[in-house]
Amino acid sequence: MEKKRIFTIPFIMVLVMSVLSGAASYMVNPILPAFLISRGAPMEITGIISSLMSLVALFGRPFSGAASDRFNKKYLMILSYVLTIICMFLYTKADTVGMIIFVRILNGIAFSLSGTVSMAFGADFLPLERLGEGMSYIGIGTVVSTMIGPQLGDFVDAHYGMEAIFIGASILLLMCVIGTYLTPYKPTNLTKEKFVFKFENFFASELLMYVFLIGVLSIGNGILLYYLKDYGATRNIANISLYYTVSSITTVATKPFTGRWLDLKGVAYTLYPAFVISIVFAICFAQAHTLGLVLFAAVLKAIGQGSGSSAIQADSVRKLGLKRSGVASSSCYIGMDLGNVLGPAIGAFVISDYGYGPLFYGYAVLLLICIPIYWLYTKKEKAQQAN
């Protein structure tokens, strides 16, 4: 039987918009602390203001998921882009800390909407039997944006100044508005149920295990995002930033294959290896004192994190069906957001008292514990299906 196509015109356009919008975000985020200081914000609160967007997005995910299942996803994506463009304009006009905080909150609302809806929007163009592979390409788009966004921001900053970065990001987002508007889309998977304020419309409790697992995988991301540079300095490892380059290249190279593996073998055959590989990554980081071992760990992290997270996201949509893809997406993102928040918080405590070795060994133990927990969960699920 002939396989249904993934790369249709609408799905390709979704991928392009994902790269452009991600690049716009990664143009702005790296320069935000310096921009805040230039506008009079004290150094000690720049981190809090910068992370405010993620915190707002965390609380906004359930509402974004509910909206995605009930309204035209195409127009919701356009709305999120327009809101973000407004934020880019307001950043350049903000001259007080209070104004910047307001803009950051608004940016968080737009980010919550775009992040949640984009996954569900992309899933609408994919055949269910190739959902894993298709979702992996969406993940690749995100990785590509992280590779080009900061470099583009540095170029604009060097040649035109810091404020021009916000203008450049706005231009990319305007291209997203136009591209999304031109994307052929007829919503067919919207839920017809009357909306009521009940828990299941905002969070999929049946995905609680997946939320936990993807959260644990994301803890590693949170730790490395904040502490990789200090880790390199503490262990005298030069050129530690090459970790990101190797990790990104590995993700782009392997995601299509891990996505196909998920579609062929199922989620369990993807998650068990993902956690085992992630455990080896954590042990490598606990022991590493050379760049070579760090880069080897980067390869492992990209494969383990990339395949595990994509498998959870794709199977979440499969479990709930396309009519609840928005809630499936938002529930997964809640787990990821929590992991990204908990990672630095746990790291701050452990590193100050014990150092990086115990931190990553402890993370390896946490990943190891997930394996029997997931095994018991699948055993219980099979027993319930048999009855």
Write the topology of this structure.
Layout lengths: L8 H20 L3 H7 L4 H26 L4 H21 L3 H27 L7 H30 L1 H21 L25 H27 L7 H24 L2 H20 L3 H30 L4 H29 L2 H31 L1
Helix pairs in contact: 1-6, 1-7, 2-3, 3-5, 3-12, 4-5, 4-7, 5-12, 6-7, 6-9, 6-11, 8-11, 8-12, 8-13, 9-11, 10-11, 10-13, 11-12
Task: Please name the defining characteristics of this protein.
387 residues, mainly alpha, Growth Hormone, Chain: A, 2 domains, 13 helices, 81% helix, globular
Can you describe this structure?
This protein is mainly alpha-helical. It has two domains: 1-185, Growth Hormone, Chain: A (Up-down Bundle); 200-387, Growth Hormone, Chain: A (Up-down Bundle). The protein is built from 13 helices and no strands. It has helices spanning 9-28, 32-38, 43-68, 73-93, 97-123, 131-160, 162-182, 208-234, 242-265, 268-287, 291-320, 325-353, 356-386.
In a nutshell, what does this entry contain?
The model has no long low-confidence stretch (mean pLDDT 84). This protein has 387 residues and is mainly alpha-helical.
Q: Level of helix content?
A: over 70%
| Radius of gyration from the alpha-carbon trace, in angstroms | 21 Å
Number of continuous helical runs: 13
Based on helices, strands and strand pairing, what is the structural class? mainly alpha
Q: Rough shape?
A: globular
Q: What separation lies between the terminal Cα atoms?
A: 32 Å
- Poorly predicted segments: none
